[in-house]
Design a protein that fits this description.
It contains four helices and seven strands. By secondary structure, the chain is α+β, with helices and mostly antiparallel strands.
Length: about 150
């Protein structure tokens, strides 16, 4: 079976919903210095954060695995191209979630999990669109949060 972009976006959406749930807060986490953004294969990135990846997708365009470590459960994906990565993220963000984004890789999980992963992998924090409807003036979502 050939893996198509819509299939990958759908898989990302299901993973984001399953991992992030609804609402929540960052628990008042304290900001720490962010290291230079990591690079490398999915296996290399997984080793950096001490998880054994459970491969879900192993295609030319994307490699995606479920990981679990002391910080929590998350999806780790690597991409063949920057464009493919951005298209995947843009499609997945419609379903909410919390994303740690590096060069040709992304980790998706709870806020506390991706924040903890950032202490090792570096990268930028991004949020999906919040469809929960709470908050009066809220944002339209999709904002990049580099300083959290």
């Amino acid at each position: 079976m050939k893996v198509t972009r819509p299939m990958l976006v759908a898989a990302a959406a299901v993973a984001a919903l399953a991992l992030t749930g609804c609402g929540g807060s960052d628990g008042g986490s304290k900001e720490k210095a962010v290291p230079e953004t990591a690079t490398g294969s999915l296996e290399h990135l997984a080793a950096e954060v001490k998880c054994t990846p459970n491969m879900q997708t192993d295609a030319d365009e994307i490699r995606q695995a479920i990981c679990k470590n002391g910080d929590g459960k998350f999806i780790l994906a690597t991409f063949a191209t920057d464009r493919g990565q951005r298209e995947w993220i843009n499609g997945a963000k419609d379903y909410g979630g919390h994303y740690l984004v590096g060069r040709k890789w992304v980790a998706v999980g709870e806020t506390s999990t991706v924040t903890a992963l950032r202490e090792t992998l570096g990268g930028d924090l991004e949020e999906g669109i919040d469809h929960s409807g709470h908050g009066a003036g809220g944002s339209a979502g999709g904002a990049t949060h580099s300083g959290h």
